[in-house]
Design a protein that fits this description.
- It is a single chain.
- With 336 residues, this protein is of the alpha/beta class.
- It is 31% helix and 15% strand.
- The strands form 4 sheets. It has a 7-stranded mixed sheet, with helices on both faces. Strands 7-6-12 form a 3-stranded antiparallel sheet, with no helix packed on it. The chain has a two-stranded antiparallel ribbon with strand order 10-11.
- β2 (73-76), α4 (86-90) and β3 form a beta-alpha-beta unit.
- The longest helix has 16 residues, at 227-242.
- The two termini are 17 Å apart.
């Protein structure tokens, strides 16, 4: 049955009561909001060093730049947004594509640099199998997720975050951060991201301007105040939805060691096209996140089990009670 005259429920809905003081005062760059946000993220993540960037991609580029003399090869699962590894290709790293997602027998490479990507708000189980191998983390979708009580993005040599508007913790446009506990990495990251400057002094090092602006930082400070409550709300909604879904759903799983923030509520559905049509008729948006379009051509066949069945439904903290009820009833109608 097609529902008429009911508002459609979208996967993403951005709204905020934020009002900018920074915009009105004209202090748009290099101000106190940047420093304040960096300090608050340090505390939130329990990490020594934080540098804000103008995107998650810029954070990854900076990480690969700092490590390029130590490593020439990047071991990466390509089932991710390509920005995870494209900056490394730009810097002439050799790509070694390895499927790790939903694989229990992965041998973590000791040669080259590894990147662990925490997709959809879920801590990556590879954290338990690193065995001393060098790695960085792409935690762009998972700010606040935890493994064994520790925030993802803080386990490897360097961690990278995105604050793009589709992320659970987001700014009013593009934004990101790179974090580390290593002082040498921090200083080199700082120079590369901030036009060659360190502690206010210009160096002769190769550098770019990848900085965040004050207005974006001000918005993130506003969002951070209430972020953990929003995540708790999102987790409760996800729990309600999960109870109605039959079969194993690996992207929704948690164990005693993991804390999932459900930035994307992804399911594997065999009859995906029928399911999407069914949900659309109920006025509920679904998205294929990701299809095989994000994969290198020679890797596509390895992921058919995912790309043929994965589908996301709305699961966000600002769903109304009525919207939650409609989604629950739709899930019951499909699975029960």
């Amino acid at each position: 049955m097609i529902l008429k005259n009911k508002p459609r429920i979208f996967l993403y809905k951005l709204n905020s009561h934020y009002s900018s003081n920074v915009y009105n005062c004209g202090k748009w760059i290099d101000g106190i909001k940047i420093r304040e946000l960096e300090e608050k993220i340090k505390k939130f993540l329990a990490i020594k060093y934080v540098i804000l960037t103008n995107s998650g991609t810029s954070a990854l580029l900076a990480a690969y730049w700092v490590l390029k003399n130590e490593y020439k090869t990047l071991n990466v699962d390509p089932y991710t947004f390509p920005a995870t590894y494209q900056p490394a290709k730009l810097l002439n790293y050799k790509m070694n594509f390895i499927r790790t997602i939903l694989k229990n027998n992965v041998i973590f490479p000791k040669n080259g640099l590894n990147i662990i990507t925490h997709l959809f708000g879920q801590p990556n189980a590879l954290l338990a199998r690193t065995e001393g191998a060098p790695f960085i983390e792409d935690a762009c979708q998972s700010f606040g997720a935890k493994y064994k009580g520790k925030r993802v993005g803080t386990f490897g040599k360097i961690g990278c975050f995105s604050f793009y508007p589709t992320k659970s913790f987001h700014t009013n446009g593009h934004g990101g951060a790179v974090v580390t506990n290593n002082q040498d990495y921090y200083e080199r990251l700082k120079i590369f991201i901030e036009s060659g400057r360190l502690n206010g002094k210009m160096t002769e090092k190769i550098a770019l301007n990848l900085r965040m602006d004050e207005i974006k930082a001000e918005f993130l400070l506003y969002e951070l105040e209430d972020y953990e409550r929003k995540v708790a709300c999102q987790r409760q909604i996800a729990k309600n939805f999960k109870s109605l879904i039959a079969g194993e759903q690996p992207f929704l799983e948690e164990d005693e060691n993991s804390y999932h923030i459900f930035s994307v509520f992804n399911m594997l559905i065999k009859k995906r096209n029928e399911f999407r049509k069914y949900m659309s008729n109920k006025g509920i948006e679904t998205i294929i996140y990701y299809n095989d379009g994000i994969l290198p051509a020679r890797e596509k066949f390895k992921y058919l089990d995912l790309t043929s069945s994965i589908v996301a439904i709305p699961c966000r903290w600002n769903l109304t009670d009525r919207e939650i009820s409609r989604i629950k009833n739709a899930l019951k109608g499909w699975f029960v």
